[in-house]
Each structure stands twice: as C-alpha cells, then as structure tokens.
Amino acid sequence: MASIAEYYAGKNVLITGATGFMGKVLVEKLLRSCPEVKALYLLVRPKAGQSMQQRVSDMMTCKLFDRVREDNPDFHQKIIPISSELMQPGLAISPEDVEKLTGCIDVVFHCAATIRFDEPLKHALQLNVIATQQLVSLAKQMHHLEAFIHISTAYANCNRKHIDEVIYPPPVEPKKLIESLEWMDDGIVRDITPRLIGDRPNTYTYTKALAEFVVQQEQDKLNIAIIRPSIVGASWQEPFPGWIDNFNGPSGVFIAAGKGILRTMRANNDAVADLIPVDMVINLTLAAGWYTAVHRPKSAVVYNCTTGGINPFHWGEIEHHVMSSFKRNPLEQAFRRPNANITSNYLINQYWILVSHKFPALIYDLFLRLSGQKPQMMRIFNRLHKAISLLEYFSSQDWEWNSENMNMLMSQLTPEDRKTFNFDVRQLNWPEYIENYCIVYLLKRLRNIRYTFNTLLVVFIWRVFIARSQMARNIWYFVVSLCFKFLSYFRASSTITN
Ligand SMILES: CCCCC/C=C\C/C=C\CCCCCCCC(=O)SCCNC(=O)CCNC(=O)[C@H](O)C(C)(C)COP(=O)(O)OP(=O)(O)OC[C@H]1O[C@@H](n2cnc3c(N)ncnc32)[C@H](O)[C@@H]1OP(=O)(O)O
Ligand SMILES: NC(=O)C1=CN([C@@H]2O[C@H](COP(=O)(O)OP(=O)(O)OC[C@H]3O[C@@H](n4cnc5c(N)ncnc54)[C@H](OP(=O)(O)O)[C@@H]3O)[C@@H](O)[C@H]2O)C=CC1
Questions:
Q1: Is-contact 241 188, C-beta < 8 A?
Q2: Which of 83, 228, 426, 454 is disulfide-compatible with 154, CB 3.0–4.6 A?
Q3: Residue from 111, 215, 254 to probe ligand 2 pocket by mutation (most atoms less than 8 Å from CB)
C-alpha cells in the first residue's frame, strides 16, 4: 500500500480556508512532506484591498514557509489561487474555474468557516452550512474525486457530555432552517437565535453541527471524513515549536495574562483543557485524506481529534504553567506584574474583576485623563470581558470524547508515516508545550515587531539627519573609518598570530 507521501504524489488538491490558521499549516505540511504533490488549488477571496493573488503571495513569504522555501525555492509554482467568495451563490467561482476544478481535483479539504462565537446566525449559517452544501455539490461534479475531508469541531455536539465518533441527528433540518431564515429580517433572526441554538452556547457550534449533517447526507456519493479537533493551539514541533498567528481561543487569554491585564477568569481547575497542537491536527487530517481515498469506507468516518481521553491536562495546570512561564520570562511593557488566577466561583470572580480589573483601569484612565491623554484601559477591559464571557462555557466544564478512529488511523500508518505525520498525543509533554506556546512565539513576535520598528526608526532618523547636516556626515564618516581601521588592524594581527 502507498505511503501518505506516495499517495499524494501527482494529486491535485483543493483547499478552502487556506489563508486561515489551520489552512496555512495544511498547505505548508503538504508541500514539505508530500513534495511530489502536483498542485494545490486554493479557494481564496480578495480582502482588505488585496487581490487574492497578493494575499496568497504574502502568505507564502511568512516565516511558516521558511522550511519549504529552503527545500524547494520554487514551491509557489504548485500553488494555484482560485477566486472564490464562499458566501456567494456558486461560491462565486467562474465557469472556467469550475470546469478546471471538476476536471482535475483528487482530494478536497474544507477548512473555511467563521469561527467567531458572536457571529449572527444568518452569517454563520451562510458560511458554515450553505457554503459547505455548495462545496459538496461542486465536489459531486468532480470526475476523479477520491476523498472529501470536512473540518468540523469537537464542540459541534457540546450539548452532550459524552461524544462518540458518529454524526448525531441535527438540532433542526438544515434545509428547513435555511428556508425559514431567508424571509426573516436580521432583527427577528437575532431575537429567535437563543431559542434556535437551544442548549448550545453559540451560533458557531450550532452551525458546525448542521454542517456535519449536510456533509453526511452525501456519504453515498462521496468518500467522506469529518475531522473534529478540540481547542487548536500553537504547533508542537512543526514546522517549528510554538507557531501561532492569532489570538483565538486560549491564545488571547494567555497573552492578556502575560501582559498583567487579565488577573481573573472563570474556569474549573479540575476540568480537562482539551488543547491539541495545530501540527497534530493537520497530520491527522492528511492521514485521514490518505485513508479515505485508499480504503473508501462505505460511510463517512468521524475522527474526534482530542487529547483529554489519552493525555489529559487540566485548566488548573495550564494556569500554573502559563503563569510560571511569564514570571520567568516577563513580556515587555506589561500593564502589571502577571498574576492571573482561575476560579469556578462566580462571586469570587466578580469580586476580583472589580478589584483587579475595573479599579486599576479606572485609576489608570484617570491618570491618562489628567495627563491630557485619551483614556483607554476601561475600553480594553470591556473587550476582554466580552471575549472571556464567550470562552468561559468551554473552560468551566469538561467533555468525554471517544477517539477510537484516531487510534485506528494511527495503527494503519507505516512506522515511517507515524513519524512524519505524527498525531500520537501521548508524546505531548504539556509543560514543555505550554512553555513554547507562551514564550517562543508570542514573546518573540512581540519583540521582533518592536526591534524591527525601533531599528527602522533609528535608520530613518539617521538618514534624514545625515542628508541635512554636514556635522552629522562628518561624524558618520569618522565612525565608519574608525571601524574600518579597527577591522584592518584586527585582521592583520590575527594573520600574524596564525
Ligand atoms: C492564565 C490563565 C489561563 C487559564 C486559561 C483558562 C481558560 C482558557 C480560555 C479559553 C478556552 C476556550 C476555548 C474554546 C475554543 C473552542 C474551540 C473551537 O471550536 S473553534 C475556534 C475558537 N474560536 C474562537 O476562539 C473565536 C473567539 N473569538 C471571537 O468570537 C471574537 O474574536 C470575540 C471574542 C467575540 C471578540 O470580537 P470583537 O469583534 O469584539 O473583536 P475582534 O475579534 O476584532 O477582537 C478584538 C480584540 O480581542 C482580541 N481577542 C480575540 N479573541 C480573544 C480571546 N480569546 N482572548 C482575549 N482577547 C481576544 C483580539 O485579538 C482583538 O485584539 P486587538 O484589538 O488588540 O487586535
Ligand atoms: N481554531 C480552532 O481552535 C478550531 C478550528 N476548527 C475548525 O477548523 C477550521 C479552520 O479554522 P481556523 O483556521 O482556526 O479559522 P480561521 O478563522 O483562521 O480561518 C478561516 C478561513 O476561512 C476563510 N473564509 C472565511 N469566510 C470566507 C468567505 N466568505 N469566503 C472565502 N473564504 C472564507 C478565511 O479566509 P479569509 O482569510 O479570506 O478571511 C480563512 O481562510 C474551521 O472549520 C473551524 O471550524 C475546529 C476546532 C478548533
């Protein structure tokens, strides 16, 4: 049987959400570990005044792609951006592109979604459900399609305590919901959203559950796998430890705690923090693509991609390791000394919010006002409280996921593939992982931004100064010639001693 890299050799792969956090890691890993892949077709939309080509070119210059660039400087030739706005009918793909895609695609990875917890229902439905439906329709027209891999979330069924690797009946028939929301204005939809989502915490988990059902309905016609990662965090090992590019989920919380802004949060010390590194999720996703295409299971296979059942780590331990990392390696320009604590008690949390968040913010803003500056701390805290109130649902309880399919998939890999596409979560050393998460990336990125900015500022000021002042020019030439003389002397003396 072909290894994973052998399988992807010569294949054309379609990816949605390639500009997102997980999509980028997927593109990078495919290019690096399956170098014979024929082409990656990325469905991308223009955004923020940038064309889709520009966005993809920018993405490929980022540090994440350093290792691929080293191995194959021409890797960009394998990347084919296709203009697509997933919120539009037909995904806004041109007829020529549809023809191209239906004629050549072998594997589809559907990563695109809105992951915001506060997304209005209509928007979340349009992107997470209707766009998925449209992509499935496109996939059904593909002549050589071997596997359709849909990225869902382990929390799609977070209204259950025990979650098996099955697709549960949807909270509502997606078609009926789509039809009814069509005629309702946004105000009415907003009013009925809490009733519709019922015991789920947000429109994100609700629409992701509906999307799974939509995908499952096509399981007779397509070879489908559904990947359900839990809380996706920074990379564990690849392409280097600690890579992350956003403040979603716990990352924003970690940085706010490191900056001394966040001092309290409602979370259960003893609840499992089901974090999973992004590189492990992507390794499993690529392995699932291979398995689906090679074995063609009769019905959709669901992979709960979680850590809690195999290598559990708890929110209390996360708090301990995050704080100890930041105490040993403090972030620059912190608001206060980092000292965050989690508690499951609502009243205690409210007390600390008042004493440790609101009161210092008030004092700081008063100081800013008195010194003629714009107050900002209260605004920052209000945003933080909004973000945290949306996350607390996930940090205050735990779930039990069955992950037999993840183990089954691992057992199907060759020893070599098990190393190259490692998703064995037993190997995770949590303290080491958290250290890299907090320090290696977050700290380095902040420092790099500051150093780059400061260096550019100094160079800029100096250039302006030199251009305008004869004295500055004289000083500059004097310093340069002194350095030159020193270097010549140093070289001469080292030649003599050798
Ligand atoms: C030290 C003690 C640590 C103990 C740890 C305890 C608990 C951990 C906490 C959380 C774990 C739960 C995570 C559950 C994840 C479930 C897994 C999933 O299935 S999927 C994906 C998860 N999706 C998300 O995480 C999206 C969540 N974000 C949002 O919905 C929105 O960003 C928002 C929070 C509603 C804010 O929206 P708003 O329009 O107000 O603004 P922006 O999005 O533009 O962001 C504004 C500002 O806030 C920063 N931000 C964003 N997210 C967070 C966050 N999680 N924590 C803190 N700050 C956050 C964002 O970067 C912006 O900052 P800036 O203005 O400086 O750019
Ligand atoms: N991050 C996490 O913790 C977890 C994520 N997941 C799932 O993983 C998948 C990827 O998540 P993640 O990478 O974190 O999400 P991101 O928000 O980082 O990326 C979302 C991607 O979807 C694209 N997209 C959004 N709207 C549109 C649109 N209208 N048209 C075209 N493309 C669009 C974005 O493109 P653009 O750059 O143009 O906005 C981006 O590439 C999602 O399905 C999510 O549900 C599951 C569990 C946890």
A1: no
A2: 228
A3: 111
Q: Quick one: pLDDT at residue 192?
A: 96
Q: How far apart, in whole angstroms, are the C-alpha atoms of residue 259 and residue 253? A: 10
- Which residues of the chain are under the pLDDT cut of 70? 440-468, 483-484, 486-498
Architecture of domain 4-230+274-310+403-427: 3-Layer(aba) Sandwich (3.40)
Task: Give the torsion through C-alpha atoms of 339, 428, 18, 449, to 10 deg.
Answer: 40
- pLDDT value for 489: 63
Q: What is the pLDDT of residue 495?
A: 44
Atom nearest to 128 CA in ligand 2: 43
Counting ligand 2 atoms within 8 A of each CB, the residue from 203, 232, 278, 279 with the most, and so the one to mutate, is: 232
Q: Where are the beta strands (DSSP E) in 392-450?
A: 400-401
Give the closest ligand to the alpha carbon of residue 269.
1
* Ligand 2 atom nearest 18 alpha carbon: 41
252 touches ligand 1 (CB under 6 Å) = yes
- To which H or E segment does residue 28 belong? helix 21-33
pLDDT of residue 498: 40
Q: What are the boundaries of each domain within the chain?
A: 4-230+274-310+403-427, 452-497
The ligand whose atoms approach the alpha carbon of 114 most closely is 2
- Distance separating alpha carbons of residues 203 and 217, to the nearest angstrom: 21
Where helices occur in 238-376 by DSSP H, the ranges are 250-258, 278-295, 315-328, 346-352, 359-370
Top mutation candidate among 14, 15, 16, 21 for ligand 2, by most atoms within 8 Å of CB: 21
Buried b (16+ CB within 10 A) or exposed e, 218-252: bbeebbbbbbbbbbbbbbbbbbebbbbbeebbbbb
Ligand nearest the Cα atom of residue 152: 2
Q: Give the span between the Cα atoms of 328 and 321, in whole angstroms.
A: 11
What ipTM did this prediction achieve? 0.92
Place of tokens 């070119």: 57
18 CA to centre of ligand 2 in angstroms: 8
Can you tell me the distance from the alpha carbon of 297 to that of 300, in angstroms, rounded to the nearest whole number?
7
Q: How far is CA 447 from CA 331, 332, 365, 378, 455, in A?
A: 9, 8, 26, 25, 12
Helix axes 203-216, 174-183, angle to 10 degrees: 130
pLDDT for the residue 492:
58
* Residue 196 DSSP class: H
What does pTM read for this prediction? 0.89
Cα angle 468-474-475, degrees, rounded to a multiple of 5: 100
What single-letter amino acid sits at 210? Answer: L
**What pLDDT does 496 receive?**
43
Exposed, middle or buried, 48 (CB in 10 Å: 0-12/13-18/19+)?
exposed
